[in-house]
Amino acid sequence: MRSAILLLFAAVNIFAQKQNAEEILNKVINKFEQVEDYEVDLTISTDLQMVKMPDMKLKVFFKQPDKLKISSEGFAMVPKDGVNLNPLKFLKSEYSAVYVKNEKDEEEKINLDVIKIIPLSDTADYILSTVWIDTENYLVRKLETVTKRGVNVSSKFYYKNTAYALPSKVVVSFNQSGEVKPGQDEEKRFRQSLKGVVTLTYSGYKINQGLKDEFFK
After folding, report:
1. pTM for the model
2. Dihedral over alpha carbons 19, 10, 146, 48 (to 10 degrees)
3. pLDDT (tens digit, 9 = 90+) per residue, 76-99?
């Protein structure tokens, strides 16, 4: 009897995990989509190995599904994906999601569901992602990704207002894990050993103002 109960529990648990992973991710995506548009001030601070860079101050405008505009007083080269506040944007291509466990975040004092995401498309630029989701508010709190280029990226998300899926701060740590070989040129050695932390601080959100498409042209 005991063995039968354990087997039944394991079967139910495996089924629930498959169901929960997709359901949880979809609820996180749906919450982000409640933000039709936003305007926000962004400060980017970098702490990179062997690189000194001043803080950058930008203004970011976004409209669903993917319109983005960035303005700054001075020159600023910022990849658009780097300021996109949708942490699950990479789920637009096919993927498989597996529910792993529930754990406690001692820093934030919240419960998190842990889900692993494996891309099914050959065009995806990542090998594996692990996401920690606050399922009380359906917010991504942490995201770890291993890219095809051998970069390990860990992002921690902080929120002042949990009503919207818009963080007040994102701390991104990355570590290029490629092997540095003797005799490589200096630029390649630098790229393969680069480590650092980038902190994005968002303030002064203006949400759902009704930004026009023409504004982004």
Report:
1. 0.82
2. 100
3. 556 666 677 888 888 888 899 999
